[in-house]
Amino acid sequence: MMKKFTLIILLILCKTTLSFGQAFGDGDGKVLKLYPNPASTQINLELQTHGDQTYEVVIYNFLGKKFDDFKLSGGRVTLSLSRYYSGIYIYQLLDMQGNVVESGKFNVIK
């Protein structure tokens, strides 16, 4: 029951944070660009904002369980998917005060 509740909350966050994310980043409202999507061995995370603000990226599996988290500041980071199984993952981009700036999903295919 808790897993379903967490998943519902994450999906709501994905939907509702888009308008907040449009205040940052480039014209399409995205602060964080993930590519390629789907991915099999690695995925690139690139901040679209200009400046030196630090963010935290939190990744959940589709059941809503926290799977990974790391800091991201400027530029691009390549994330190895060697520990990831095939499936859909949900990410949240948090500012340093813990506010959700953006959320989305990516697909891992192995």
Outline:
The protein has 110 residues and is α+β, with helices and mostly antiparallel strands. The protein has two helices and seven strands; from the N terminus they run H-H-E-E-E-E-E-E-E. It has helices at residues 2-16, 18-21; strands at 32-35, 42-47, 54-61, 66-73, 76-80, 87-94, 100-108.
Structure explained in plain terms:
There is one protein chain. With 110 residues, the protein is of the alpha+beta class. It has a single domain, classed as Immunoglobulin-like (Sandwich). It is 17% helix and 44% strand. Residues 15-27 have low confidence and may be disordered.
Task: Return the domain count.
Answer: 1
The major sheet is characterized as: 4 strands, antiparallel
User: Helix count, per DSSP?
Assistant: 2
CA-CA gap between termini:
29 Å
Strand order of the largest sheet: 4-3-6-7
Please, what is the average pLDDT?
Answer: 82
CATH architecture: Sandwich
Helicity level: 10-25%
What is the CATH T-level topology?
Immunoglobulin-like
- Computed Rg: 13 Å
List keywords for this structure.
alpha+beta, Immunoglobulin-like, four-stranded antiparallel sheet, globular, single chain, three-stranded antiparallel sheet, 110 residues, 2 helices
